[in-house]
Fold:
Amino acid sequence: MALYIQALGEDGRWGPFQAEQGVAYEFVTRAPGYAVTHTYRSPFPRGSQLVHLKTSRIADADLPAFSIIELERHRGRADPYVCHIVFDGRTVPPAKITLPQLQSRPIAAEIHTDMIERVVGRTWPAKESHVVRLELSQ
Structure:
């Protein structure tokens, strides 16, 4: 059930949205020429005046995949030599995972710096033009 539905204005603004601290949200964006993008963010640690929601396109090489999952870290790079990152159970993660067969399941990413941050999403079918983004805020 959607907590908030908003069409973007000409300027790209979509708020205000009042998030609860410590609660994880799924943001779904739809735009012509882009895949339906399901963004799972780790909980907001504090308020923010700016939340950038990115949309994704499906590359031709990824068309055979059942699901496409992208990982992004907002603060700094997802550098496995600087911090310990686990993406779908892999410790030296790529920025993107494609699942070659039907696997409707949860998918997780976590980062270990001075604290552990974890985000969990679920897979969506790429053949129906869906892409999943897991976003870590730290």
About this structure: The two ends are 28 Å apart (CA to CA). The mean pLDDT is 85.
